[in-house]
Amino acid sequence: MKTAGTGDQSGGIGVPDTTQLPQPGTGNIVHALVVAGGSISTTTLSDVHPLRLDNHAWLVREAARARIIIGADAGAGHLWACGVRPDLVVGDLDSLGQETIVALESAGVPFDRHPTMKDATDLELAIREAVNRGATSVSIAGATGSPSDGNERLDHLFGNVGLLGHPILREIPTRLISPISEICLITGPESVCIIGAPGDFVSLVPLTDHVDGITTTGLAYPLHGERLAWGTSRGISNELRHATATVSATAGRLLVILQRRHHEPLNG
After folding, report:
1. Are residues 155 and 194 in the same domain?
2. How far apart are CA 59 and CA 49, in angstroms?
3. What is the pLDDT of residue 11?
4. For 209, left (φ over 0), alpha (ψ -120 to 50), or beta?
5. Tens digits of per-residue pLDDT, 187-207?
6. 216 with 247: CB under 8 angstroms?
7. Is the distance from CB of 52 to CB of 46 less than 8 angstroms?
8. Of 172, 193, 218, which residue is a domain's last?
9. b vs e for 207-227, b when ≥16 Cβ sit within 10 Å of the residue's Cβ?
10. What is the pTM (predicted TM-score) of this model?
């Protein structure tokens, strides 16, 4: 079972209990944080969302959990702006400012540079590098917001969600994260544990023609071995009844999305 058993009060989704908040030098846990170029600015989220989160503090906390920190192009700029030194910068660097590039190089951060004309996004290349470096679980930040220039890129959003199904991640628990939401993919037979707060939204979105044998616990509207079909909305906006819930499926691919209603503690 995948679980969000992260060991603190912040909760989450899709992080296995064998990879509880990793502490440097302990066990065989190798948690990776990969940061893409989608916006993680305080203005973008806090001014429109009632949680009014300190998003820089959130990203610093996520970085503290990771043994491997990789910036995918402009994602390295997010890290640097928060005072976090990435272990590696990956990409074609078409969206990372020259001043930041110079600062990172001066700090001794290595770069894995790629041509602009390539067959994979910077984020996919960064994920591959995290796995090549031994990651046993991966959190991906900056993958669900608009780019820092404010130009909406739905193609990148859907492409980033699709990366959860990359073959290289099949045995590696992976989630897309933001201060207010998390997304993971389960492929039946598989289950996931969710840790949040009562009232948080949980949505289930089939990615195959149908997903069979869906069973939930801890949700306001339970499912008992049921089927959800692609193109239907039955799985949208369920809610946590308690602090934890589980979702399982016997066949098919299912997105599990946690949308928080409550402030996520930043002192975990």
Report:
1. no
2. 17
3. 56
4. alpha
5. 999 999 999 999 999 999 999
6. yes
7. yes
8. 172
9. bbeebbbbebbbbeeebeeeb
10. 0.85
Domain count, the chain: 2
What does the pLDDT look like over 204-233, one tens digit per residue?
999 999 999 999 999 999 999 999 999 999
- Tokens standing for 72? 């995918």
State pLDDT tens for residues 15-68.
Answer: 443 333 333 444 588 999 999 998 775 444 444 444 344 678 899 999 999 999
78 & 134 share domain = yes
Assign residue 129 a region (left: φ > 0; alpha: ψ between -120 and 50; beta: otherwise). Answer: alpha
> What was the pLDDT predicted at 40?
74
Residues 138 and 225 in one domain: no
Tokens representing 5?
A: 């058993």
Q: Is the same domain home to 230 and 158?
A: no
Q: Which domain holds residue 238?
A: 1-16+181-268
CATH of the domain at 69: 3.40.50.10240
